[in-house]
């Protein structure tokens, strides 16, 4: 029996502790990623929510931008939630000129597409291939996918994709780590397991 997968959680801002708890509750090992060496020997990576421009600036300051870009483009299974979805996109329709994108998902997103913090909401989502009924999505200053490009759309809300996957990369406009429902973290771990045995 191989050791349980080691999942790195980018720990610069956002709800990274909740992602760590969710991964550990699913039986994975979790490591906080704050420095380039924290990326070594990972089986998967989580890029949590937060503020997307601040996140790219912090990654740059910590020397993480290029190493994260390298491992993600190198095929490391990655889960991005909320701002993490923006970071993984290759197009942001209202991004700042100094905002660096990892560009691994062929999607166009608009930051805070659902409005400000006061416009946060929850919605039941039908997620493709997910058993056990709808998933309660928690949307907080969530991005809107304006064009899913060639990514596979896993869930929609009011005509917009809110969950996409492309190869070993999965991105969600909402916060599964705040829902108390572990199914999407388990789904991501299935991608990780697939990459480990490939």
What key attributes describe this structure?
single chain; three-stranded mixed β-sheet; 25% helix
Structural write-up:
With 198 residues, this protein is of the alpha/beta class. The protein has 5 helices and 12 strands. The strands form 3 sheets. A 7-stranded mixed sheet has the order 2-1-3-4-12-11-10. Strands 5-6-9 form a 3-stranded mixed sheet. Strand 10 and strand 11 form a beta hairpin. The two termini are 16 Å apart.
Number of strands: 12
Poorly predicted ranges: none
Based on CA atoms alone, the radius of gyration comes out at 15 Å
Shape: globular
The SS-based structural class is alpha/beta
Q: CA-to-CA gap between the ends?
A: 16 Å
Oligomer: single chain
Largest sheet: 7 strands, mixed
Chain-averaged pLDDT: 92
Strand content range? 25-35%
Tell me the strand order in the biggest sheet: 2-1-3-4-12-11-10
The topology string of helices and strands comes to EHEEHHEHEEEEEEEEH
The percentage helix is 25-40%
Count of helical regions:
5
Outline of the structure:
The chain has 198 residues and is α/β, with parallel strands linked by helices. 25% of the residues lie in helices and 30% in strands.
Describe how the helices and strands are arranged:
Blueprint: E1 6-10, H1 16-25, E2 29-33, E3 44-47, H2 52-61, H3 65-73, E4 78-81, H4 83-88, E5 89-92, E6 105-110, E7 121-125, E8 135-139, E9 144-147, E10 152-157, E11 160-166, E12 169-172, H5 183-197
Parallel strand pairs: 1-2, 1-3, 3-4, 4-12, 5-6
Antiparallel strand pairs: 6-9, 7-8, 10-11, 11-12
